[in-house]
Amino acid sequence: MTPPPHRVPASVFSALARGGGGPEAIQLMVTARRSRTLVLVRTLVQMAHEINHSDAVDVRHAYSALATVRAVAPHAVDHVLDYPSVGAWATRTARLLHRRATATARPGYLAAVAAAAAVHGAVPLTIRLAPDPSRWGIHLPSLGVALVPRAGEEVHVRSAVGGSEVAVPGTTVTIPADPHQDGPQWQGTRKIAVSSCGFTANFLLDGWASAHLPPGLSGRQNVSNPVQVEQWRRRIAAGWDLLVQYHEEVAREVEAAIRVLTPLPAPSHDLVSATLTDAFGCVFLSLPPDARSVAITLTHELQHAKLTAIMDLFSLLEADTGEFFYAPWRNDPRPLVALLHGTYAHLGVAAFWRRQRYHEEYAAEARHAHAEYARWRRAAHEVAHVLLTSGQLTPTGCSFVAAMAQMLDRWTADPIPEEAVTLARQLAEEHRTRWLTLH
Questions:
Q1: Given pLDDT bands bounded at 50, 70 and 90, which one contains residue 219?
Q2: In 3D, which of 277, 239, 280, 237 has the Cα closest to residue 256?
C-alpha cells in the first residue's frame, strides 16, 4: 500500500491562499492527508516490530488484513483511513513508538481500523483484535462500539457480505445493517444529515474512544440519546441552511472537509470550538446557541483544517525561533505557527461577515455584522503584515501570506458604516489594552 505523489496546481494554491479553494482543493487535501496516515501506519508497523512491542504480531496481521480489504474494496479502506480519530491515533502512536514509550503506545488498534474497513466493504474476513484489559467496549472507528468488556480476552470481528459481528468468549454482538443505529450491545456512532436547497451534508457525532482523545479535550461528551441527537441535528441544520443560502462556497468546502463533530460541554457563555492538527475532518465544539454561531464556527474551523493540510504539503515557516507575538483574537501570546493559523482563520471569518452583513434582517444585527467585518478585516490585515516582516516565512510561505494580504488590501476599500468602524476600533483597542495589562 504505497501512497501516490501529490501535486497542487498553482491556481489551486493561489485560491487557497486567498482563503477559498473550493471542494476540488479540499479533495486534494483529503487524499494527501490519507497518504500521510498510510505512511504513519506503515511506519508504526515497522517500529512495533523493531522494538518488539507486545502488539507487534497483531499489528503485522492487521496490516495484512488491511491490504486484503484494500485489494477488494479500496473505497472502504480509504473511508476508514480518512476518519479523523484514525489519523490522530496513527500520529500519536508513531510518536510514542519513536520515543520507545511501549507502555502507552497502542499500535494494536490497527486491527480495529482493518476490521472497520472490512465491515464497511462487506469483505469476508475474520480479524483478531489485540487484547486491551484497560478498556470497556470494542471501538470500531467510524462505526460504533460493541458494549462488552475486553478484560484481556480474545476479540474477533467477523465481516461478511450478509452482516458482521464482534465476538468475545461467551458473547457475540451483531453489528446492525446500518451500523450508525443501535442494536443489542451495540452503540452506533450517530449520523446527522442536514439539507438545504437540495444540498445535503452528513456529519457523525463522535465522542471518540477515550484512549485516543487528544490531551486537553478530556471533557468531550458522547451524545447518543435521541433527544440530544435531534437537538444537535436541528441546530446544525439551521446553520447549514444559512451557509448554503449566503455562503455557498464555504458550505461546499465544509461538506467536503468535515466528517465528524465532537460535542464538548457547554461553557458558561457563548461556545467553544477547536480543530486538531492530527485529526483532519473533525471539529470539536459545544452546542452552538443559534444558526449564525453554527455557520461562523464551521467557517472558522474549516480554515484551520485547510491550513493544517496545506502545511502537510508545503513548508511555510522557517525553524521556530521561540518568539511569541500579539494576536488580536487571543488573550495569550502566540508562536508564529499559531499566529499564521489565526490569521488564515480570521481571513475566513472576515469574508463571512463581509457577505453576511447584507443578509441580516434587523438593523442591530446588521450593525453587529458590519462591526465584525471591520474588526476582523483590520486584525487579519495587520497580522498578515507582521508575518510578512517577521523574517520567519519560507519563500512559499511569503507567497501564501502575501496573497492573503492582497485580498485584505482589496477589502479595505469596502464601505462600512462609520458607527460600525468606531465600534470595531473600540473593541480592538480594549482587547490590546487588556492583553498589555496581562503581559
A1: low
A2: 280
Closest among 432, 437, 438, 434 to 327, alpha carbons compared: 432
pLDDT value of position 134: 55
pLDDT band at 73 (very low <50, low <70, confident <90, very high): very high
* Phi–psi pair at 247, nearest 5 degrees: -140, 55
By the 10 Å C-beta count (0-12 exposed, 13-18 middle, 19+ buried), 179 is classed as buried
User: How far are the Cα atoms of 6, 27, 154 from residue 57, in angstroms, in the given order?
Assistant: 32, 34, 14
Provide the greatest CA pair distance for the chain.
73
- Which residue, among 148, 150, 145, has the nearest Cα to 134 in the 3D structure? 150
Q: Are 318 and 392 in contact (CB under 8 A)?
A: yes
Burial class (CB in 10 A: 0-12, 13-18, 19+), 180: middle
Exposure string of 260-295, with b = 16+ CB inside 10 Å and e = fewer, is bbbbbeeeeeebebbbbbbbbbbbbbbbbeebbbbb
Dihedrals phi, psi of 424, to nearest 5 degrees: -60, -40
3-state helix, strand, coil in the chain (%, to 5): 55, 15, 30
Phi, psi dihedral angles at 376 (to 5 degrees)? -80, -25
Mean pLDDT score of the chain: 92
| Separation of alpha carbons 181 and 58, rounded Å | 29
pLDDT at residue 47 greater than cutoff 80: yes
Q: What is the pLDDT of residues 392-409, one digit of tens each?
A: 999 999 999 999 999 999
315 within 8 A of 400, measured Cβ to Cβ: no
User: Predicted confidence band at 439 (pLDDT cuts at 50, 70, 90)?
Assistant: confident
Of 229, 341, 364, 360, residue with least CA distance to 292: 360
Place of cell 486491551: 132
Determine if residue 21 is left, alpha or beta; phi over 0 gives left, psi from -120 to 50 gives alpha, anything else beta.
Answer: left
Q: What are the phi and psi torsion angles at 269 (to 5°)?
A: -150, 160
Place of cell 516582516: 389
113 CA to centre of own chain: 18
* pTM beyond 0.85, yes or no: yes
Q: Give alpha helix (H) positions in 125-281.
A: 226-246, 248-257
One DSSP character per residue, 245-256 reads HH-HHHHHHHHH
> Could you tell me which of 417, 420, 439, 438 has the C-alpha nearest to residue 428?
420
Measured distance CA(390)–CA(414) in Å, rounded: 28
